[in-house]
């Protein structure tokens, strides 16, 4: 019976963006954890609508944290959960995802923190802007100024380069 209820919630969630807030409030009232909501939305399955649904799920994690308290599902736990949920993704793909999160008004702060966690781990793994650039798929012969400034790949490379430079000075 629970599978049927979860499927109905997912269908309702997909049916209309105006329903998102109502479902988020209902899930909060029933104390659904972000992990449960992630599973209800089947975000671990490959789907075309994953990014928009993932953004909505991240909004839910923020609502959950503010309602239940900062330690309920911390930013670092959210970050680690996303990494664990998609083990096939490369760090560069997460960097692009976190750029998308940062461009979402309600999630700008969360996206920045998650990106910093990622960049810290990359610096610890001895990534340089050059190795990160290669993983982003930007050929070494492509001048950086030829990339569009609003492109998520450009922004990820720019943000990592700044982060790397600051970390190296510490």
Automatic annotation (TrEMBL):
Family: Belongs to the RxLR effector family.
Any single Gene Ontology cellular-component annotation: extracellular region
Superkingdom of source: Eukaryota
Matching InterPro entries: PexRD54_WY (IPR054463), RXLR_WY (IPR040786)
Record has ATP-binding as a keyword: no
Keywords, sorted A to Z: Secreted, Signal, Virulence
Stored Pfam families: PexRD54_WY, RXLR_WY
Positions of the RXLR phytopathogen effector protein WY-domain domain: 63-116
Domain RxLR effector PexRD54 WY: start-end pairs: 23-60
Upper lineage: Eukaryota, Sar, Stramenopiles, Oomycota, Peronosporomycetes
Compartments where located: Host cell; Secreted
Full protein name: Uncharacterized protein
